[in-house]
């Protein structure tokens, strides 16, 4: 039965290709997940200052930051408030202008004193003077002045110009000074004379204070430097900008500080996500390339791990960004618990480190989320341990919650202003994360193990219960083989415990390794009634060997029917490796007249494969040792030691231990463990007298 079963086992090269492909897929998925929040929020990717806000933006957490925008605005205002710096009034310019005015007055006096010229000619000559440009009405009034009044006008003009030129006059102030001249003219002058004085002086008003660019720039720089950086503070939940408002530059800066939007040119963020993902992928690959774990050679297990990791990283990146409390409540530690339960605690630790680094990347509170995720995940996996009881999951959840609170106290509370309500919310989130992580891991490991045939400690304990349907079938149909399996399980389990192998898996695998004998129990000597031993000498040795070998494949068939974990298949297939049925082979050689060339050796060989783990190798050694001890009945420790060493050496000689990583030190420990257990099982016993003779002796012995 089941002789046509041929398990598909990918070659090492194909497994290596699959590992690389899955690692690439997981890396690509993780990288996409890191930029997923930005891709899912296209309305915020192009938001700029001056745009209308498409939604309400609130501060996801308390934050203080130096506002470059507000600081620059304040410094620009201070700079603008500084007036241009001019040099002190230059007296040389004043003297020059006064001399020019005297020259003009002399020219006017010369025209006035020309007795040959008529009044109209004088007006024309005055209007044509090069020293000063006079208005026609002023040129008409000057000849009418008497000599005394003209002298008074000249003196007043020089006095007013000197008075004005003592002041600081800038280029932009020239017109203002000219308009103020009438108020400076002596009140002793009549309006006509005052107008003449104003006209004469106005022509020679000139800037005497020159703009100093260097001093002005220095003053403005001093004003800028005097403005301290402006610190802006937001409380958690505070509105930054309301929907429909025009986004100011200061509000846009706040949105960038909270990472609520990303800039148009986001290639730097994509490059960073890619670099981080590549680094984490290299860490995972290099770590496991130096470890030899069973799940690394199983295509189904690799696919499951890739799927679980991708699901968690995508869920985290969809749930965590842009929220205040959710990041601390997200059950990220469940990933480590689940992988540790399904595969190995070491794998759970490695993938916990990887996702703790990736999940908070680029978030505003990354510096407290990363240690929060990392420490709680690692402590959770370590607290879970072997996961052999349901309560260990809740123990792990409690450890995650406590560790999460500790991480918050260490990495968030001292550096981020948080009120009492916020503290309680975050502590509650940590507790929720712990309980949710343990619950998710417990339920997920059960369903995944059932659906995919994976192996968990809880499942191993469940199927190894004495009332397990398959064990009950085994006990009822092949009690001798059942007892033999229990003895082998004891041997293999103790040895596994001592060398650091998986003792639970070894014990359960050993209990089911001969379950296929229940399909044809009477063909095996341990199930035959006492005194009716059938050595099958009346049958063809090749047919007998075929029937014996069939118990391996029959066991696989029964294991599949009862949905045993696929890891148990390895114990059933590998416990004889590729060795031969020696007793039947020797019978065939004898029947062929001692000519081994006439016997097809492959008909007597177990299908294998050879043991590929320490656990299945221990089963092979324990199975062979127990069978020989039952047959040879060693009487002392030396005989037991010799028997165990002989069994191990035989397996080594035929290359059955080549792929198991068992060291010579391990084999020494295994030998000692086997001898100690067999010594207790096969120790000499006293011979009790016949029951009837003992009774007669008691009855006939006289009383004293």
CATH topology of the largest domain: Arp2/3 complex 21 kDa subunit ARPC3
Largest sheet: 2 strands, antiparallel
Number of strands: 4
Structural class: mainly alpha
The total number of structural domains is 3
- Cα Rg: 51 Å
Q: What is the overall silhouette? A: rod-shaped
- Helicity range of the residues? 55-70%
CATH class of the largest domain: Mainly Alpha
> How many helix segments?
30
Strand content: under 5%
Description:
It contains 30 helices and 4 strands. It is mostly helical and about 700 residues long. The protein folds into 3 domains: about 10-40 and about 265-455, Arp2/3 complex 21 kDa subunit ARPC3; about 90-200, no CATH class; about 460-495 and about 515-680, no CATH class. A two-stranded antiparallel ribbon has the order 1-4. Helix 16 (about 345-360) packs antiparallel against helix 17, helix 17 runs antiparallel to helix 18 (about 390-410) and helix 22 crosses helix 27 (about 615-630). The longest helix has about 35 residues, at about 420-450. It is rod-shaped. Residues about 1-10 and about 690-700 have low confidence and may be disordered.
What's the gist of this structure?
The chain is mainly α. The chain has helices at 12-39, 42-45, 68-80, 91-112, 119-127, 136-141, 147-165, 174-179, 191-202, 213-225, 249-257, 267-289, 299-319, 326-329, 334-342, 345-358, 366-384, 390-411, 420-452, 457-463, 469-477, 479-499, 503-512, 541-561, 566-574, 582-591, 614-632, 637-653, 664-681, 691-700, and strands at 57-58, 63-66, 231-234, 239-241.
């Amino acid at each position: 039965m089941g002789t046509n079963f041929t398990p598909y086992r990918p070659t090492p090269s194909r497994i290596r290709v699959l590992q690389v492909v899955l690692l690439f897929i997981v890396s690509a998925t993780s990288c996409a997940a890191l930029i997923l929040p930005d891709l899912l929020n296209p309305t915020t990717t192009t938001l700029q200052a001056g745009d209308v806000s498409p939604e309400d933006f609130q501060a996801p957490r308390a934050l203080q930051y130096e506002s470059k925008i507000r600081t620059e605005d304040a410094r620009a205002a201070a700079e603008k408030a500084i007036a241009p710096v001019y040099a002190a009034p230059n007296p040389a310019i004043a003297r020059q202008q006064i001399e020019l005015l005297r020259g003009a007055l002399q020219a006017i006096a010369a025209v006035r004193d020309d007795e040959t010229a008529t009044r109209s000619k004088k007006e024309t000559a005055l209007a044509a003077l090069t020293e000063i440009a006079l208005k026609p009405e002023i040129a008409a009034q000057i000849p009418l002045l008497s000599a005394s009044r003209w002298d008074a006008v000249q003196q007043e003009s020089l006095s007013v110009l000197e008075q004005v030129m003592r002041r600081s006059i800038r280029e932009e102030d020239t017109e203002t000074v000219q308009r103020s001249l009438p108020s400076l003219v002596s009140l002793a002058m009549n309006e006509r004379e005052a107008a003449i004085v104003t006209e004469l002086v106005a022509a020679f008003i000139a800037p005497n204070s020159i703009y100093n660019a260097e001093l002005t720039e220095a003053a403005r720089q001093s004003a800028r430097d005097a403005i301290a950086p402006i610190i802006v503070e937001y409380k958690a939940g505070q509105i930054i900008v309301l929907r429909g408002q025009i986004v100011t530059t200061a509000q846009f800066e706040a949105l960038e500080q909270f990472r609520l939007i990303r800039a148009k040119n986001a290639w730097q963020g994509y490059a960073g996500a890619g670099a981080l993902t590549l680094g984490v992928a290299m860490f995972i690959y290099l770590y496991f390339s130096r470890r030899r774990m069973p799940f690394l050679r199983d295509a189904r297990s690799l696919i499951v791990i890739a799927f679980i990791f991708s699901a968690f990283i995508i869920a985290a990146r969809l749930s965590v960004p842009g929220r205040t409390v959710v990041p601390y409540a997200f059950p990220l530690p469940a990933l480590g618990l689940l992988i540790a339960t399904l595969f190995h605690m070491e794998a759970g630790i490695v993938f916990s480190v990887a996702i703790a680094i990736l999940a908070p990347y680029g978030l505003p509170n990354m510096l407290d989320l990363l240690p929060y995720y990392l420490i709680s995940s690692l402590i959770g996996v370590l607290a879970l341990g072997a996961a052999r009881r349901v309560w260990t999951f809740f123990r792990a959840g409690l450890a995650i919650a406590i560790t999460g609170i500790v991480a918050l106290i260490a990495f968030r509370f001292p550096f981020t202003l948080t009120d009492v309500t916020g503290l309680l919310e975050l502590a509650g989130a940590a507790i929720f994360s712990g309980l949710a992580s343990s619950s998710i891991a417990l339920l997920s490991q059960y369903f995944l193990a059932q659906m995919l045939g994976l192996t968990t400690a809880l499942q191993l304990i469940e199927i190894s219960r004495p009332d397990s349907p398959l064990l009950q079938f085994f006990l009822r149909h092949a009690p001798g083989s059942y007892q033999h399996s229990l003895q082998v399980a004891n041997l293999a389990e103790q040895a596994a415990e001592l060398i650091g192998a998986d003792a639970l898996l070894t014990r359960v695998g050993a209990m089911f390794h001969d379950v296929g004998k229940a399909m044809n129990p009477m063909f095996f000597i341990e199930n035959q009634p006492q005194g009716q031993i059938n050595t099958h000498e009346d049958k063809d040795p090749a047919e007998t060997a075929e029937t014996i070998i069939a118990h391996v494949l029959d066991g696989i068939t029964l294991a599949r029917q009862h949905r045993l974990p696929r890891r148990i298949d390895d114990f059933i297939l590998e416990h004889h490796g590729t060795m031969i049925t020696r007793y039947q082979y020797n019978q065939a050689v004898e029947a062929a007249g001692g000519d081994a060339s006439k016997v097809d050796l492959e008909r007597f060989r177990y299908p294998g494969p050879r043991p590929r783990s320490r656990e299945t190798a221990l089963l092979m050694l324990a199975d062979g040792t127990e069978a020989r001890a039952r047959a040879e009945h060693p009487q002392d420790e030396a005989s037991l030691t010799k028997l165990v060493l002989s069994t191990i050496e035989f397996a080594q000689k035929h290359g059955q231990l080549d792929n198991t990583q068992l060291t010579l030190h391990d084999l020494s420990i295994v030998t000692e463990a086997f001898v100690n257990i067999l010594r207790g099982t096969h120790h000499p016993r006293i011979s009790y007298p016949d029951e009837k003779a003992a009774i007669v002796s008691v009855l006939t012995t006289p009383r004293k």
